[in-house]
Amino acid sequence: RLPILKEAINNRGFIRCIEAHSGLSALIAETARSVVDGQTIEFDGIWESSLTDSASKGLPDASIVGTESRLHTINEIIGVSTKPIIVDGDTGGEPGQFQFLIENLERMGVSAVIIEDKVFPKRNSLDNSAAQTLEDPEIFARKIAHGKRVTLNEDFMIIARIESLIAGTGVKDALIRAEHYIRAGVDGIMIHSNQREPSDLFEFVKEYDPLCAALGRRPILVGVPTTYNQYSDQDLADLGFNIVIHANQLLRASHKAMEETADIILKTGSSKEVDPICSPVSEIFRYVGL
Predict the structure, then answer these.
(1) 3-state secondary structure of 214
(2) Which of 56, 67, 203, 267 has minimal CB crowding within 10 Å?
(3) Cα–Cα distance measured from residue 223 to residue 101, given in angstroms and rounded to the nearest whole number
């Protein structure tokens, strides 16, 4: 499945992905279909998120869950899906750790890894109470270059996640970092924002193509509209994004449903009242088999 992601972007210019944090959530991502204007649409790929992987284990997204545990989750997803997978690689670690991750992801058939330019241990970008410390862009660019040297499959993509707008260092810093990473050979740039109205993100996107034209190469552009999801996938595609990732919605939806279900059972003293909001056991069997 490894080359499918790059092929889809090359053929269509834009794809959408949704997160999965377990085998069951991967089955949802795999089988979800909807008819819009007479056309059947589905998700093009799966995002394996550090946040949702950690949260599903009851742990914070703070570089606590190790690589081997992450690989186990990825293997669960691979076992029940056919869609290309993009993995959240956090900071990538030291160059040797990044090489270990890349070797395993390639062997498993993962299509891309996204690493963010913060120092280890990272804190989640949506945590407004956390200090976000950025890595020196030259050091991070060397990590990217090292990753590209050890990559065996030309279809495997390394994508740099720029955290300037999260850390408050601004658009100019984000563009400087993008230039470093493009020169280092990165395959894609993810520009991240935690604002409801991300004017700085849109300013970066406006400046991105002229920067790439000056450098003679345009890596794909990735967006994650968790906070600015009033803008549709098509809106973001029209702006120039090649991948839009819905990065945590399946986990958040399941958390809310589990909380409500547990509360109703406690209040009523019976599970009968939650039957209307629960999938029948037969539906679970349909997904996972007997």
Answers:
(1) helix
(2) 267
(3) 23
Q: Which of helix, strand or coil describes residue 226? A: coil
- C-alpha to C-alpha distance for 266 and 207, rounded to whole angstroms: 54
The verdict on whether 61 is a catalytic residue reads yes
Q: What values do phi and psi take at 118, rounded to 5? A: -115, 165
pLDDT digit string (tens) for 220-263?
A: 999 999 999 999 999 999 999 999 999 999 999 999 999 999 99
Length of the chain: 290
Please choose, from the candidates 205, 137, 210, 207, the residue with its C-alpha nearest in 3D space to the C-alpha of residue 167. 137
**Model confidence pLDDT, tens digit, residues 85-97:** 999 999 999 999 9
pLDDT digits (tens, 9 = 90+) for 149-170: 999 999 999 999 999 999 999 9
**Catalytic residue, candidates 37, 44, 53, 61:** 61
Closest by CA to 238, choosing from 191, 199, 202, is 202
